[in-house]
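Sequence only, no structure available. Ideas?
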Amino acid sequence: MENLTTRRKLTILISGLFIELTVGIVYAYTVLRVYLENELGLNQVQSSIPYLLSLFFFAFFVMIAGRMIHEKTFKLWIVVGITSVVLGYMLASIAKDITLISTSIGVFLGSGVGILYGIPVKISQNLFKKRRGLTVGLTIGGFGMSSVITAPLLQFSLDQFGLQQTFIIFGIISGIILITASVLMTYKVELNQMYRKILKKEIEKPGKLFPVFFVVFMIGIMFGLSMIGLTSYIGIKDYNLSIESISLWIILYSTCNGLSRPLFGYIYDRFHLKPTIYLLSGMTLLVSLFYLFIDFRSESFFILTMGLSWATVGGYLSLMPNLTRDLFGEKSFTRNYGTMYFSYGIAAIIGNLYTSFMIDQQIDFGLIFIPVIILNLGLVIFMSYKKIKYYDVNQNAV
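Reply:
I predicted one. Tokens follow.
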């Protein structure tokens, strides 16, 4: 990778960005959710199932692909990932019930997204080693920024062509973009260096801190993912907004999600771990306290709280690969990162089932945030007392 020209490196970076933009449509589910509820007669818990399944299988296959991709299987995994995404859309186009829509969007689309997501991350880490946090943040920023493009396109297509035709259109376009970007991204990339198959004796055990940060990420991401899934519901029920206006605001929220990734990548590069987590926890606490104690019904309040909520997810996902590499080593990074990313899938299930169940039970919305406040306060206190050492980079506690 060091021998590549700057132009070639930028081509790889941009191609990876397009892959992330394409698969990041899972964050636009909040637009689709309203249509599914209306057409299939679903309640909040039922309509959350395709979303949480897609995020669970997304995270699960980030973990699986991280363990199994190596030089000889690299292209096969890309083909499987693209095929799974396209097949998910096509099956969704013929779905008439919650079972098939959950299988198509949740299992097939989510699995394909998970396979493809980690590949640009792995490659981008080797492009500009002096600014890895910023580079990775820019790459996965495409995933967070995806809804800037996909949400209004999805809304337009649903209004013009209906649910089934929209799935077909998005399946075809996604397949074309993913194939083209994958070819451009992997051309002249030294796969033998990045994806060398690691022998069992070479696998480094991540140590006692690994499960600790697995829980840290699970707690941190849980809140933001729930708010992303509930964006349309909150906008319609609490702020009397139309789904069309919410779709436009999702462009802003996706921008917050996307830009927070390089931003927090830079913050991590500059200030290290603890200040980054303090800031992310502070944003979560601010939004939670707003909804618990303040009963505003202005559109500006909706914009502020949702923008911060979407940004926390981007921040944690930017922090995750950099922290995994710095705390648990370079050699087993792909394996460890995939396992760490599974915390995202657990957070998706717990957070979305919890919030959807509470809403269906007609619990006051502000009270839903009490556990969120307790967990994040506990996280801040824990990080205040915990000494962290970097792996072979900086042996001083941060």
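The two ends are 31 Å apart (CA to CA).
Hope that gets you unstuck.
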